[in-house]
Design goal:
This protein has 154 residues and is mostly beta strands. Helices cover 8% and strands 45% of the residues. The protein has one helix at 17-29; strands at residues 2-5, 37-43, 50-56, 68-70, 74-80, 85-91, 98-103, 108-111, 117-121, 125-129, 133-139, 146-152. The strands form 3 sheets. The protein has a 6-stranded antiparallel beta sheet, covered by helices on one side. Strand 2 (37-43) and strand 3 form a beta hairpin. The protein is globular, with a radius of gyration of 15 Å.
């Protein structure tokens, strides 16, 4: 997991070409007009899979109702655009209570364990979650705007 400012994120692009593509897009487009939907921002050179951004306005959930989720095929970047987003985190290997088995089709598993840490991501910051990072996004009250970039694992 990485938490950093969008401005300082470029150095993490060395981890993967797909992550570099997503960070470069984010640094150039995070202030674009917000239009809800899912958009392709590039393609993985290694797998041919799309790198996508979801522009979302999700309802926030109380901490106790926010389930940890994990992915195997994608890295997630969460970027709040309006207000602070609280996200729970735990290492997947430490989780014991599977709520929903991993779905190959949807690339997600849900867990009933509690988060080990809570992250408070502010506007201008981003949080990167790798397949070993379970995360429970959208914790709080009301709604907010955010970007969620889905990056295929190399």
């Amino acid at each position: 997991m990485i938490v950093c400012t969008i401005e300082d994120a470029a150095k993490y692009g060395a981890i993967s070409p797909n992550l570099s593509l997503a960070i470069n897009w984010l640094q150039n487009h995070c202030t674009d007009e917000f239009v809800k939907g899912t958009y392709t921002i590039g393609q993985s050179e290694t797998t041919g899979a799309d790198v996508t951004v979801k522009c979302e306005e999700p309802a926030l959930l109380p901490r106790e109702k926010a389930a940890l989720e994990a992915h195997k095929k994608f890295i997630d970047i969460h970027v709040p655009l309006k207000g602070t987003e609280t996200i729970g985190w735990a290492p997947v290997r430490a989780l014991k209570h599977i709520r929903t088995q991993y779905s190959e089709e949807n690339d997600v598993a849900f867990f009933g364990d509690s988060a080990h840490s809570l992250l408070h991501i502010k506007v201008g910051q981003m949080a990167v979650f790798f397949p070993e990072d379970a995360h429970a996004p959208n914790i709080g009250l009301g709604t907010h705007r955010k970007l969620c970039i889905k990056i295929p694992v190399d």
